[in-house]
Amino acid sequence: MRKMLQSAEVDRNDAIQRSTTLAQQAAKQASQHVQSKLEKISGLERQHIQLNAAQNVAESKIRELEEKLQEERHKRKLIEDKTAELATSAETNRILMGMATASSSEPKKVKKKKKIKRAAATTTHIQPQSHYRVNMGSIPFIAGTSTSKSHNVGANIQGALSLLKTHNPVLCNAATKTRRKYCRTSSLPSDSDHAADVTEVLLGLQDEFGNMGFEHKELLKQIQDTEDERLRGDLERELDQLVARMETKGEQIATLKQHQARLTRSGKRKKKRPTSANGVRETKSLSVRGGEVEVVTTVKAKSLPRNLERAKSSNPARQNLDVLQSMRKLQTSLRKDDLSWD
C-alpha cells in the first residue's frame, strides 16, 4: 500500500511538474508570439512612417514639377505672344515701308499735277469786280459831257472830271470788294482747318490700323494653338485677307502723311514769305480730291489811300459834297492867266 501511495504521489508530482512546465512553455510561447506580433506591428508602423515620408517627398516633387510645368507653359505662352507680336510688327513695318517707298518714288508726278492745278485755280478765282460810275445828274454843277482831258488847263479840272465820268479802277466799290472777298475766303477752308481735318482723319486711320494689327496677332495665336488642319486653313485665309486690308489702310495712311507734310511745308513758306513792295500778297491752300492736289491762290491788293477810302465808304451826298469842296479849292487856287481854252 505504502508503495502504491508513494508511486501515486510521485505520479501526481510528475503530473504537476509536467503541467507546470507545459503552462510555462505555453506562456513563454504566447509571450514570444505576442512579442513577434508587437515587433511586426512596430515594423509596420516604421514602414508606414517611411511610406508617409516618401509620399510627402513625392507630393512635394509633384508640386514642384507642376509648378515648373505651369511656368514652362506660361513662358511658352509669352514666347508665342511675343512671336505673334513680332510677326505683326514685321508685317506692319513691311506694309508701311512699302507704302513710304512707293510714295517717295512718285514726287515728279505730284509736282506736275500741282503745277497744272495751280494754273487752273489761279485763272478760275480771278473775277471782275464792279466799279464806281458817276451819275452826271448827281454832280452839283454844270461840267459838260466830255470825257476827254484838256491839256491846256493848268490845274486840269477836265482831267479830274474825266476820272469821275469814266470807268476808273481806282474808284472801285469798296463795300462790294470787301463783301466778295469775305464770301470767297469764308467759302474756302483755311489751311489750319484743313490741317486739323487731315490730322483727325489720320489719327482715325492709325487707330484702325492698330486694331487690325491686334486682330493679326490674335489670328496668329489661334493658328499656333489650332491642331485641326481644316480650321488652320480657314484661319490662314482670314489672315491673308486681313493683311490685304492692312496694306490698303497703309496706303491711305501714307497718302495722308504726304499731304500733311505738304500742308506743313506750305504753312512754313507762308510764315517766311515777306509782303512785296506793291502790297500784293499770295496765300495758297491745298486740298486732295480724287488723288490730285488742288492749289487755290488768293490775291490781296494793297490798301488804297485814306481819302479814297473815305470817299468810297461814304454815302452819295457826302461824295457830292467832297467833290464840290475839291472843285472850290481848285477854283480858288487858279488864276486868270492859268485858264486858256481852244
From TrEMBL:
The keyword Repressor does not apply. Residues 1-28, 261-286 are annotated as: Disordered. It comes from the Eukaryota. GO terms for cellular component: centrosome; microtubule. Residues 261-274 have a biased composition (Basic residues). Keywords: Coiled coil, Cytoplasm, Cytoskeleton, Microtubule. GO terms for molecular function: gamma-tubulin binding; identical protein binding; microtubule binding. Coiled coil: none annotated. Residues 189-259 form the Cep57 centrosome microtubule-binding domain. Residues 1-97 form the Cep57 centrosome localisation domain. It is found in: Cytoplasm, Cytoskeleton, Microtubule organizing center, Centrosome. Its main location: cytoplasm. It holds the Pfam family Cep57_CLD. Residues 16-28 have a biased composition (Polar residues). Belongs to the translokin family. This is Centrosomal of 57 kDa-like. The lineage of its organism: Eukaryota, Metazoa, Cnidaria, Anthozoa, Octocorallia.
